[in-house]
Request: fold
Amino acid sequence: MDVIQASCGAGALGLGFIAPAFAVAGLSLASIPIIIHFLNRRRFKTVRWAAMEFLLSAMRKNRRRLRFEQWLLLAMRCAMLLLLGLALARPMGCSSNSLAGLIGRDSGVYVLVIDNSCSMSYEAERQQAHTQLDQARRLAHDFVERLSGGQAVAVITTANPATAIVAPPAYDLKAAQAAIDRIEQSYAPCDLDGALQKARDIADSDAVAREPNRQLCLFTDGSRATWAAGTAEAVKAKFKLMPAAFPGGITHFNLAKPTQSNLSVLELTHEGKLVTTFFGTALDADARSFGPPEDVQLQWQLDNQTLAGSGSMHLDLARPQLRQAHVDIKQGGPHVLSLTVLPHDRMKTDDTRYLVINAEPSVKTLIVEGEHQLAALGGSGAFLRTALAPKSAASPGGEAAAAASYVAPDEISDLELPGKVLGDYRAVALCDVGQVSESEADQLQHYVESGGALLVFMGDSVSAERYNSVLYPRHLIPGPLTRRVSVGSEQRGYRLNFQPEGVVNPILGDFAHVANSGLDTAQVYTYWQLVLPADSKAQRVLDFASPATSQPAGEAVASGAATALDPAITLHSIGAGQVMFFATSADPTWTNLPAKPAYVTLMHDLLLGTISGDDAWMNRTVGDRLTVPANMGLSVAPTMTDADGRDVVMESANGTYASPPLQKPGLYTLKMGDRSVPIAVNVDAPAVADLRPLDDSQLLSSMGGVGVRLVGDQLPPRDETEQDALGRDMEWGLMAALLVVVALECFLAMRFGHYRRGVAVEGA
Amino acid sequence: MAEIATDYRAYLNPKTLARIASLDLRARLIVEGLMTGMHRSPYQGISVEFAQHRPYVPGDDTRHVDWKVFAKTDKIYLKQYQEETNLHLICIVDASESMGYGTVGEVGAPWTKYDHATAIAASLSYLAIRQQDSVGLAIFDNDLRRYFKPSSSPGQWKTVTHELQIVPRLKKTNMGRVLNQLAEKLAHRSLLVILSDFFDDLDSIRSGLRHLRFRKHEVMVFQILDPAELEFPFQDVTMFKGLEESGQLLTEPRSLRDGYLEQLGMFTEKMKKMCRGMHVDFTRMDSGQPLDVTLSAFLADRAASIK
Reply:
C-alpha cells in the first residue's frame, strides 16, 4: 500500500502486490510449459513410415507456419500460468491509471463501530432521524451504500457489552445494511474499550489482515459519557494501536449537537441499610445538569404520592443537597420512591429514578443462649435481648406490653436451635453458645450465605476447639480462636481502642465526636484472642487496646497499629450475608460494657451493621439480571412484566429463578403467587448522563492523539485523492484475462491440431 | 446357400485373410467370395475381345446387340467376340520395403500392402487360370527380382502363389527401370496389372508406363495404400523413420496432417492424370478395405469397356 500511495498520481500505475509470493510463483510456473515442451521432444513414439516423402514435403512447405503456431501456443500456455500467479498476488494499482481503472475494482474491509448506548437515545430531532442512534444508523447505512462489490463490512455495537453483530466482515452489503437497520437502542452504558478490542480482533484475523485497505469508522455522539468515562484511559491506549490495525484510516462521525445537554437523577438512596415502620428514614438524591445550569421542578413521590419537599430547584454540575430528612413509612412491605426532574429533556430515561424500599415492620432476631440460666437477665442473650428490644411497663393484666422496638427478638436455648427455621429471621445471635454441631453449622452457613446476619458473642461456654473445628472451616468466625485472654482480679481490664475524635468505623458512626459514651472507657476482663489470616477480608470494626496496666488511663494505642492489637469486633461477608464477631461476652461477666451508656446503642449498631438490606435485589440497573432470593419462600413459579406490561421470561436453575439481563429501564412487577413486588430498573446514570460534547481537540486527545479523520453528522463527498491512494485491486481483471487466454488457447490448439477422422484422399 | 455366400464374403476382409497363411487358399476364397456376390460369372469379360459384327437372326442372345450400330443404321447387328484363349495376364508386384508397411489387423502380424498386393495378384491369376488363360508374374523392388513368363499350365498357378509368398522385402523401389526391362522382355501383347504403392519418382514411372504402352500392352495400375497412409491418424509427438532410407522426422503429427494429406492428394492427382493420358487404368486401393469392393469394380469396369 505504501508503494501505491507513494507513486500514485498523474495516471501512474504504481503497482504493488498484496501477496507478492504468488507473483514469484507465477513467474516460476510459467516455465513449466517450456520444460514440458523439451521433455516431449525426448519422449516420443517411433513409427517406421513408408510415405516419408509426402511428410517431408509437407514439413518443408509448412515449416514457418508450424513454428509460429507452436510458439504462439507455448506463449499462451506460459501466459496462463503467469496470469494466474499475478491474479493470486492481487496487484493493486492507482485509481487514476487507466489500466487499473479498467480491470481493477475497489477493495477494502470496513469496520463500523456504532454507538447504541443509552446516551444515543438523545433526541436530536433531525429531519430524518429522531434520536442520535437513528442518525447513526442512517449514516452507516448510507456509508455502506457507497461501497462496491469486493468491499466487506463488519459492524460492532458499543452498548455494554460490546457486540460484533456482523463478523467476520460480510461481502453481502445488503445483509450488512439490514443488520445496521436492526440495531436497537440500548440503555446500557458505552463499552467503547470492548468495541475497539473487537474491531482490532477483526482487523488482525487471518482473513482480514491480508487486505491492505482496512478502515475503521466510528459513529458516536462525541459525548463525555462515551469518551471521558471510567475506561477513558483504556480507550486511549487502545486507540494508539488502531493505526497499525487499520492502515486505510480511521474516521469518526461525530453526531453531537454543540448545545446538547442533559438533566439527570444520578442517585436515589435511603439512609442506612434498614428501613422500618418504627422510625422514618431519610432520603438522599443526586440530580444534576450536564450542561448549562437550569431551574427545574423536582418531584418526589412515594407510591405515586407526591412528597413534601418537591419543588423548584436550580441544578448545575455540582452535587446538590437533595434530602428528604424524614419520611415516615407506616406500612410494611415494598414501596416505590421516585424522583423526577421536570420538564423532561431530550434524554428522558434518566430524568426519573426509582427506588424500591422494603419497609420492615420488625426485624425478627433469633437470640440463641448457650448458657442455661433461668434467672431474669441470666446469660448474655438476655442482656442482648433487653438492649435490642427493651420491654415497656407491664399492662394491668400482668403481661409485658408490646416491645417498643423495631427488633422482635426470639430467645431460645442452643438446644432448640436445630428445630428453628433460620430463614424466618433477619438476624441470628449466638450468645455464649458452647457446642455447635456440624449440621447446625451447615444450617448457619447456608443462612448467612443466603443473606442472613449472624452475630457471634463469646462467653464461658465457648470451646475454642469446637469453634475452630466447626465454625472456622465454614468461615462463621473470621479466624481461629487461639487463647482466652484474661486479667487478674486485681488488674484493670483491657480497653477498646476507640477515639471519638479519631477515625471511627462507619458502623460506630453514632459514637463519633460523642464524649463520655463509655465506649472508650469500658473495660474487658476476658476475651477470646483471634488470629486473622493474612489474606482475611474481615473488617476490624474495633480492636482492643493494650492492657490497661501498661498504658496511662485514657490512652489507647493508635488504631493504625492494628497488627499488634487483638480484634474486639470484626465484620466479614459470606455470600449475601455478614457475620459480626464480638470477642467478649454480651453480658457483664467478661466486661463492664453493658453498664455503659454506649451498650444499647452499640448493640443496635452492631445489629444494623450486620443486617443486609433486603431491598437491594429489588433495585436493579439496566443489564443486571433479577434473581429472586431463596428466602422468598416461593410456592409457585414467579412471573415478571416490564414497564410496558410485556412479559419477561424467568429462567429456573437449581431451584433459583432469575431473569435474563434487563434491557429497559422502568418499574417492573414481579408476581410470586398472590404477592406482587415492584422492581426498579434504572439506567447507570453516572455512566450515561454526561452528554456534554467534547470538542475536536478533546476528542483527538481521547483517541490518544492518533490521526483520526473527524467528520460531522453527514457523509462527506468522496475524496478522489483518498480513493487514488487506496488503490484498485486488479485480481478479477487478471482472472478475466486468464479465462480469455484459456479459451483462446483451447480454440487455437483445436484449430491448429484439429484431426478430422475418416476424410482420406479419394481414389480414382 | 445364403449362409455359404455370407461365409465366403467374409474372406474378402483383409483382417480375415490375414489369418489365412496360404496364399493359394486366400486367392480361392477371394474368388469364391466374389462369385457369391456377383450375378454373372466373373470369368466373363476378363479376357473376351470384340472381333466382328454379324446380322441378327431371331433367337440370338440380345445381350450382344450392338446398339450403336443400330442407332446409326437401323439395322440390328450382334457383336462377335474372339476368345482370348491366349490372353497373357502378367501381375507385376512391387516387393520393395515400403510395401511391407501395414497397420491393419493384429499388431504383431499386420496385413501389409504387400499382402494386399499378393492377394489381388493371386486372385486375378486364379481367375485367369480357371479360364485357361496364361498367367505370368513379375516381382520387383529396385530391380526385376523374379519373372515368370505367362503360361496356362496348371503348375503355373502354384508357381505364382509360391513365388509371391517367399520374396523378401528389403530393397528400395525403382519402378521405372523395372517397367522398361519388362517392356523389352515381353514378346506378346499382355494385360499387365501393376500392384504397388508407387512411392517412386513419377517421371521414372511415366517413362516405364509409356514404354509398355508403346509396346501395345494393356496396363492396369493398382495403387495400394495402407489406411494410416491415407488418413494419417497419429496424435502424439512421433519420430517417423522412413522406409527405403528416405530419412526421418520428429514432429507433432496433428499439426502436419493437413499438409501431408495435401501432398498425398497432389501425388495421386498427378498419377491419375499421367495414367489417364496414357490410357492406363488407375485404381487406388485401401489395404484395410475388403477386396470385393475394388475387384468387383475392376471386373465390372472391364465388362463395360468390352461392350
